[in-house]
Design a protein that fits this description.
CATH architecture of the largest domain: 3-Layer(aba) Sandwich
Order of helices and strands: EHHEHHEHEEHEEEHEHEHEHHEEEHH
Largest sheet: 8 strands, mixed
Low-confidence stretches: none
CATH superfamily of the largest domain: Alkaline Phosphatase, subunit A
Strand content: 15-25%
Number of helices: 13
Mean pLDDT: 95
């Protein structure tokens, strides 16, 4: 019988500060706890799997006998960005963080970039994406320049109005930047940030965002694909892994479209990994500090969760996790260094298993490989026997 693993990453849904949070100025961050305690979103399905039973959570919702295995995971890699988190989930642990540029990128690099793309650059500072298009969008319309900016994360972002710079050109410019940003300038991601509108009051970003990641080392995606199985990416997963190890994809944009695409992909006939990113909690609500919107997005996913469970075959595995935090009640607009939740469910599994605190996100990849019987030549420790009820930590 063909097996699937459905791996869903709820982007930025951290579950409390990591022990080294002080190094990132993130002491006190607790994305999920603060959202639940402030807004009380209706999350009965994740709670039934064990979300409220995870060790040390700050919110109510524990059930007597969770249907799933549950725990939380510590990040071994330095950093708190999307690329680092997803790569570690997939078995690649970084020794050095991707570089950040809080004061902007070097002027000599930008001069070379301007020559390469044939346009001037404006901006070049750390900013919220919605704020910088309000500040510089009208100038960009008038001049045809590219808005370049960064954040606390390792990103080189290019914003441009679609009426002035077509998407194809914007993506080409991002590809040029990706090739130029090497060595000490090798950021985790170059991100295309198209927007529309004619005035600062009307500007809004579109769903045509594209991420151009650094090329990852070997991950579970490579190993699964090499075994002849499918690695089916939904949302921005294919970009995060620079398409490496991805055999099929649907670049849906936004949680509703990604949930629909994931359910459709789950119903297809193949053996392998369905790897899903649901970005709205991070991009739309976390960074914009919209606590109620964040809560509503969690509730919307929880409402869709039974559909994923219903489609599971007897040999399928469902894993729900996150990649970092982005506490909408916290200071600033950046990611937060947090544990991530871990929920695991399969119709053949006994449930009610406390996985406690895992030492690395990479335990997910080790377990996925173990589920398929693929030797783990990368990183992480499988918790397969634990979720099968055969051992305890």
């Amino acid at each position: 019988m063909k097996k699937k693993v459905v791996l869903i990453v709820l982007d930025s849904v951290g579950i409390g500060e990591l022990p080294d949070a002080a190094l990132y100025d993130d002491v006190g961050a607790d994305t999920l706890g603060h959202v639940i305690n402030r807004c009380s979103p209706h999350l009965p399905n994740m709670m039934a799997l064990g979300l409220g039973n995870i060790d040390g959570v700050s919110f109510p919702g524990a059930v007597e006998k969770p249907a799933g295995a549950y725990g939380k995971m510590r990040e071994q890699s330095p950093g708190k960005d999307t690329t680092t988190g997803h790569w570690e989930i997939a078995g690649a642990v970084l020794e050095q963080p991707f570089p950040t540029f809080p004061d902007g990128f070097p002027e000599d690099f930008l001069e070379e970039f301007e020559k390469a793309v044939g346009r001037d650059v404006i901006g070049n500072y750390a900013a919220s994406g919605t704020e910088i298009i309000r500040e510089l969008g009208e100038e960009q319309l008038a001049s045809g320049s590219l808005i370049v900016y960064t954040s606390a994360d390792s990103v080189f972002q290019i914003a441009a109005n679609e009426e002035i710079i077509p998407l194809e050109e914007l993506y080409r410019d991002c590809e040029i930047a990706r090739k130029m940003l090497t060595g000490v300038l090798e950021v985790g991601r170059v991100i295309a940030r198209p927007f529309v509108g004619e005035t600062s009051e009307e500007f809004r970003r579109t769903g045509a965002r594209r991420d151009f990641s650094a090329e990852p080392p070997t991950t579970m995606c490579d190993l699964i694909a090499a075994s002849g199985r499918t690695v089916y990416a939904i949302g921005k997963i294919e970009d995060i892994f620079a398409h490496k190890g991805i055999t099929k994809s649907n670049h849906a944009a936004g949680n509703p479209a990604c949930i629909e695409a994931a359910l459709s992909a789950q119903a297809e006939d193949y053996e392998g990994l369905l790897f899903v990113n649901l970005v709205d909690t991070d991009m739309i609500y976390g960074h914009r500090r919209n606590v109620q919107g964040y809560a509503d997005a969690l509730a919307a996913f929880d409402e869709a969760l039974p559909n994923f469970v219903e489609q599971l075959g007897p040999e399928d595995l469902l894993i729900i996790t996150a990649d970092h935090g982005c506490d909408p009640t916290f200071k600033g607009t950046d990611h937060t260094r947090e544990y991530i939740p871990l929920l695991v469910y399969g119709k053949s599994l006994p449930g009610n298993v406390n996985l406690h605190t895992r030492e690395t996100f990479a335990d997910i990849s080790a377990t996925v490989l173990d589920w398929f019987g693929i030797p783990n030549t990368i990183y992480g420790t499988s918790f397969l026997r634990e979720i099968q009820g055969k051992t305890e930590r």
